[in-house]
Amino acid sequence: MIAYSEVSAFTSTPGQGNRAGVVLDAADLSDAEMQALARFLEAPETVFVTRMGGGRVRVRYFTPTQEVVFCGHATVALGLMLAQAGYWRGEALELETLAGRVPLRLVSEAGVPSQVWMRQRRHETRPLAPAYRARLAEALGISDRLIHRGLPMASASSGLWSAFVPLLDAVILDSLEPDLPAIEGLSRELDVGSLYAYAPMGVNRFAARDFAPLLGIPEDPVTGSSAGALFGLLAQHGRLPVRGGRAVGVIYQGHAVGSPGEVEIEIEVQGTNVVAVHVGGCAVLDREGHWRRGL
């Protein structure tokens, strides 16, 4: 029997935010067994710990249909479970992922873990040709006149690639009627994992929705990896206030699927260069269980 936890990340309310499966002892599981357990849990992503020790934790991430190189909300969920299980008390800790090494930081209040922060991998961007604007809008079920011309439309990654599409406001964002087959085709064509629509709610606050049918996730409730990539993109384009070489903000996501959550982001910048991307949030345990191998 394999012990697992189901955790809601980027929220302090069970059942909201984004659900992740967490398996702290997966050293003896095969690739096929990890995939089977992820499919059994049906969480957007499940994280498996395959080795732990010396301040490092080796992990792998699976959606219900395939392995992915990184997942932000599952990383926050894992950090909480490591702390609650007594494996981590706030000392330096680094995850070894297929996307690279990811340092974690634990925030506690009155001795109780309250937030997990991660430093995501190197921020990268790729331009999106203006000719894609109409196709992206059509895939989202809107006119291209509703795409914000003053915010960046591009592909970016700080762990997992997404195509970012800015909209004029959150009302438009909430009214999207996505064509998932079209989004899947565009994601494959652009070599990204998801199509991430976002809209401004203030100078450093944004609402977002993330569609990832190519990864087997029609709409991801709250996406930590893409949140970091977006803020890196915004900082790179001078669209965030910067003080002391840092830009901070919040992304609100999940309302459209009845599972709201908040992602906090801090970007270190030098001029227009993104030096580091930090993403953090709360998490709460939903339930625990055991999976019988061979099911």
UniProtKB/TrEMBL annotation:
Pfam families: PhzC-PhzF. This is Isomerase. GO terms for cellular component: cytoplasm. The active site is at E45. InterPro entries: Phenazine_PhzF-like. The lineage of its organism: Bacteria, Thermotogati, Deinococcota, Deinococci, Deinococcales. GO terms for molecular function: isomerase activity. Belongs to the PhzF family. NCBIfam families: PhzF_family. Signal peptide: none annotated. It comes from the Bacteria. It comes from Deinococcus koreensis. SUPFAM superfamilies: Diaminopimelate epimerase-like. Keywords: Isomerase.
